[in-house]
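We recall that each integer encodes one residue's backbone shape. We quote one record:
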Amino acid sequence: MITTTPDYVLTVRAVARLVGEWNRASTSKVIASELTCEEVEPLAAVFLAAGDKDSATAWIAEHVATSSECRGHDEEPLMSTTTVVDTPTVVHALTCTRCGSNGVQPAVREWVNCTNCKHGMSLSEAMTCDCDGYDCVPRPTDHHAPEPGEAYTYPLCDYAYATARSLGAGWEADSCHLGAWGLILSLDGRVALRLYVDGTGDTGDLMLQDRHTGAEYVVPGECTPAGGAASTPDEMREWGNALALFVLALGL
């Protein structure tokens, strides 16, 4: 059996991902009634550990209301066992080139080994700062270094996919590297539009570029949802519908 050493940074990322996916009310309504009391309390504790007391309370409440086997829960002790401490996340100086773990330990000479996936690499390959792997640096916490999805929930390519879905049969979409822009395509090859944000001006206009002619079209603000960038599937569908109407209005 292969065992691995727990990695603090990977653990934080995994918990954040779990909380981000499981904090939806629709998820708790479907699953909470199927969990036993022994199963739902550890899940609530994960939300608490991540600082999301509302989701922890919601899962317990939904479980109590819908589970026929629930024996009841004393919520206050559960809610008071976790204290959220504002400590900075630490990024260590060495990062595994294979799995991304920070659990990298110096071995001999200029060689290091990953305690997570057991991959070996040179010290220079694993280095992420100039402290020789024996120190660590705090991760920036200002607005210039947000956590994934903090500023915008969806990459721009998702707007292209939502538009193609709204346009219906005969349309598809594609994504560039990292989803920084997307393509909206008709299956007959007649229309090929690149959806991107103009980074040359001061306003950051949402743009469509005709890949056949090079013509560019600014998507007016009044043609897009009033709430700004999409942060939920329903809002993304609204964006898809709005952009689909704009594409059709171009008459290409």
Remarks:
- The chain is about 35% helix and 15% strand.
- The helical segments are 8-22, 25-31, 37-49, 53-66, 75-80, 123-126, 156-167, 233-250.
- The radius of gyration is 24 Å.
- The first strand starts at residue 90 and ends at 92.
